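Objective 1.3, modelling of assemblies. Example input:
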Amino acid sequence: MSKAAPRNTARVLAGPPPSAGTESLKDHRARLGPMPQVRHQEDAVALLEASGLLGRGGAGFPVGKKWRSVAGHASGNAVVVVNGAESEPASSKDRTLMVARPQLILDGAQLAATAVGADEIVVYVGVEHTRARAAMAHAIAERASERSARRPTPIHLVEAPLGYVAGEASAAVHYINARDARPTNKPPRISEVGVRGRPTLVQNVESLAHAALIARHGAEWFRSAGQGQTRGTAVITVSGSVTRPGVREIDLGTTIAEVAAYAGGAREGLQAVLLGGYFGAWSDLAETWDMPLDPVAMRARNLSFGSGVVSFLPADACGVSATARIMAFMAGESAKQCGPCLYGLRAIADATQRLAIGGGRYDDLVRLERWSGQIAGRGACGLPDGAVAFFQSALRVFSAEFRLHQAARRCSHPRAWAGVA
Amino acid sequence: MAHVITIDRIRCDGYGMCAELLPEMIELDDWGYPILRAGPIPHQLVSHARRAVDVCPVLALRLRTAVPANARS
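Predicted structure (tokens):
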């Protein structure tokens, strides 16, 4: 097992390392060649369907299926939104890609525009990601100044405002339409009524970068990477107690243990790992150390690959305190439109914080269990569902620690208790 | 024909009248917002459901006829 070299296929991150900065249009074309012309809408959709690529923004929806849905509602008037909002606090892979490979992302966006029948591309980049925004703006300008026989789809850039929900697809559309980054009710679906009322595809930047390579090398090439049921590679963000945290591209199906090894190994004893991001779940490393990072295998364990976040919690950190911090963030990120999210997440965050610092009420844990089971499915967007799913994972993984905090008002981790962790 | 209630969660302000009129299908959470029981409304409750929809001060409730599950593709 240990002598098998970990496979770490570089695809969207192939070429010069991200630390070398932005790849220019000239260098990009020299390295990869021109984007093959896909003339027919159906060819582009079928290609992505055959690849099996899953969306990398968090929900993991099949890209080809999404393209077919938008194409079915459009008649050449659709809009493609390139989603680089990356509002997930534990993720930095999207901005890394935008800084290093903006032209690859734009190639994918042009392909998506062909596939869904779009005459406009909006690049939606988080306002806080200043380098990524500059790189995307420069890449758009490089293309605009290029003489081309075929008129490419016009591209413009919109800054996504701060906030977790700003990256949600309907919030992105709402912001582009009305400068209001709050999610909207579905129906209508944005695949039917989106930017300026037109059918709209909102697609994560990494998904588009993969699509650009699939157009060049084919669906079979894409499927040749990957060690489990889900094929291809993924760009992930590794953080927490490892020697070399950062953004890496892995074969899907790589185990958590291998990811830790790529990141230079554990810096200290580890107890749990946050998978998928703040929308994801805690997982006990005693159970998942050898689990493959594969969306299908993870779903079977009630986990989610999400946006590719892998964050290691050291053994001497308090899981209740770590959870309290994340819940406080999530409650603060509610768009404050729907009561169950606005009041429910705040109540969960406050009670968790009380427990974390040893001031819990006698029934806080009972109420936390009840509340966290009542909120899912009762908001306009998925934020409350994601937040309570995350919280329920904390109740499972840190069950003993939660009970100790409730019953004895104690923490078994002196470092966290002193407020150091 | 089966009926279902849908709630516009952005519109709902937690007046709670729906739960008064249709307690068989709707209970309230700790903050007064409705928790809807899953599934279609039993035939004998449809008129009560219609009243619950009508009295909502912010018009957050809708009564819809559900497409039977086996008719979906």
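Chain B has a mean pLDDT of 91.
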